Amino acid sequence: MKYKLVIFDLDGTILNTLGDLCAASNAALQEFHLPEITLEQTQSYIGNGIRNLLLQASNYSEQIDSIVEFFKEYYWYHFNDFTKPYEGIQEVFQFCKDKGIRIGVLTNKIEEIALPLIEAHFPNTMDFVFGEIEGRTRKPNPEFLLSIIKRYGYTEKDVLYIGDSEVDILTCKNASIEGVFVSYGFRTKNQLLQHTNCIVDSALDIITCLGE
After folding, report:
1. Are residue 65 and residue 91 in the same domain, yes or no?
2. How many angstroms separate the CA atoms of 209 and 160, rounded?
3. Do 132 and 196 have their domain in common?
4. Mean pLDDT for the chain?
5. pTM exceeds 0.90
6. Cα→Cα distances 64→17, 43, 44, 69, 89, Å
7. Does residue 60 sit in the same domain as residue 72?
8. How do residues 50-72 score in pLDDT, each as one tens digit?
9. DSSP label of 86
10. Alpha-carbon distance 1 to 157, whole Å?
11. Pairing verdict, β 15-16 and 84-85
């Protein structure tokens, strides 16, 4: 196989988390008497962490620290109310396992939420799950991604990254690794085409990118 390690983004790539993110955002906004946002707005704000989402959702409120804390407390109990895997993604994981390709998740989602989400939907599937924790660099900074590759004894040429956003595209460029980006997630195909031509329209199409 061409690739020995495939790393996936989480939100908008393997799990559709939009409903729960929107609900938690609006619960936080309501708490601070701010206007709610739509699913479409939530989708456009996702990709660079919760704080960035809520900054935009709150119109850069001076209360952002409190809004973020409320969001985290609410989301902890409601992170899996509406979240579902994207169609075909389980088959992609199984293909990788059958071919001996190691798989894992690198996300800007808070790690203490990413871990139970992955366990709930894909138990005993991932070789690793890394998310946002204090002191760890976040995408599109390539530092931690490159440390994962080194940790497992691979080179950049052994790795394929699967994502759905401009942040993921930039991460791949910064790390000098190949990427494939899905148009079924939180960015439209036209939005992705402004940055890359390496686009697939369904999860099963990822398999064709893995090579023999």
Report:
1. no
2. 9
3. yes
4. 96
5. yes
6. 22, 19, 19, 9, 35
7. yes
8. 999 999 999 999 999 999 999 99
9. P
10. 12
11. antiparallel
- Kindly state the tokens that stand for 45: 């704000």
Structural domains of the chain, count: 2
- List residues bridging with 110 in a β-sheet: 132
What CA–CA distance (Å, rounded) separates 29 from 24?
Answer: 9
Q: Which residues pair with 128 in a beta bridge?
A: 104
What radius of gyration, in Å, describes the C-alpha atoms of the chain? Answer: 17
> What CATH number does the domain containing 119 carry?
3.40.50.1000
Residue 42, SS3?
helix
pLDDT at 212 over 90: no
Strands 178-182 and 159-163: what pairing? Answer: parallel
For residues 116 and 202, state if they share a domain.
yes
Domain that holds residue 24: 18-78
Tokens of 75: 């989301």
Do both 63 and 138 map to the same domain? no
- For residues 42 and 57, is the Cβ–Cβ distance under 8 A? yes
For 81, the token pair is 């109310």
